[in-house]
Fold:
Amino acid sequence: QLVESGGGVVQTGGSLRLSCVASGNIHGSSTVAWYRQGPGKQREMVAEQTSRGTETYAESVKGRFSISRDYAKNTVYLQMNAVRPEDTAVYYCNIRIPRVSVWGQGTQVTVSS
Structure:
């Protein structure tokens, strides 16, 4: 089970850090990721980190968002800086290993202009 938190209302240009706490230990071979779904849009990948530390970001968030994980706290983070109104969406955490993919319930982020 994954539980996201940290969402809310933030002004354009501000920062926010999302957290995703896993009910169990995060497997060392897992890929962790954040996705988002804006109003009337399809869900899209925002940031991903493989077990080897390779990170991938959507073009729209490169240089502004950063994904990280803390094994000791069983937590995945998404640091969001210089946010824009188009970042408004429900953000979902995803952790997966071969044949198993777990999703959180989502946390709303609203960026006001």
User: Anything to note?
Assistant: The mean pLDDT is 95.
